[in-house]
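During the no-cost extension, the postdoctoral fellow (Dr. R.K.) reprocessed legacy sequence entries with the updated structure-token encoder. One reprocessed record is reproduced below for audit purposes.
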Amino acid sequence: MKKIILVLVLIGIAGVAGLVRSHTKNGGSIRTWSLGHNQNPSAGQAREEIRKNYDLSPGALVEVSGINGSVKIETSDSKTADVYIERTGDSQEALNRRKIIIDNGPSGLTIRGEKGDGGFLARVFGSSPSERVTLRLPRQVSLVTRGINGALVVGEIEGPVEVHGINGKVQISAASGSAEFSGINGNVSVGLIKLDKNFELRGINGNIELRLGDGVNANLETHGMNGSVTSNMSNVVVDKSKRGSYSAVIGHGGTAISAHGINGNIRLSQLGEAEPIGDR
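Re-encoded structure tokens follow.
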């Protein structure tokens, strides 16, 4: 009987409407709404906004991980990182059980989601909260993303890019330097202005579009591929040596692009001409 009364009290508290606002020490803000049951249920019963900004040095490392939702990253020539995160959940208690941690310094910025409580409260209040992350970053950064349950859309990056464990489409407008993609359940579209180091793609369940700049000279090798390699570029020669394996010489050849365990097609196109491939 005591457990039943406790459940009813907790549910009653979650349904009370209110508004809480607090300011962070660095000048950013966190706003939290607890919505009544009569408001739009599709928007969630509790909502929180996090707004912060930081100064970053050129070449700073930016890491985003453990996000239950989409991530959008815009870039510019600024030296400031603007962070906006919208969180929604079944209740304020649900938001409190799962935290978003932000660590920063001049040489780096880390945004990560912590696992929530999977015990009694989680069973009472339902599923985990979800997030939508929007970042505005300097163009000259190193970017690492991992463990994102949603789409990842990124602007132009002048630095290394790593993308791991994404459950959704991945779209990179343009990248310069090295790149590594693995464990992606969705279509991938990447623009390559230049390629200073090897580019590796592993374990991707979706189609891949590589949009290549005029200065890209590389050799593509694929193995264990359930799909084909095609190109509409005049400076690319594609050869199929055996089932599941392709090779292609891009421009004069050079830097290695390797693809393993791809369940989909790879298309090579000119940067600036092809439209990103559709969702999956």
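The first strand starts at residue 18 and ends at 23. The chain has one domain: 2-270. The remaining legacy entries will be reprocessed before the final report is submitted.
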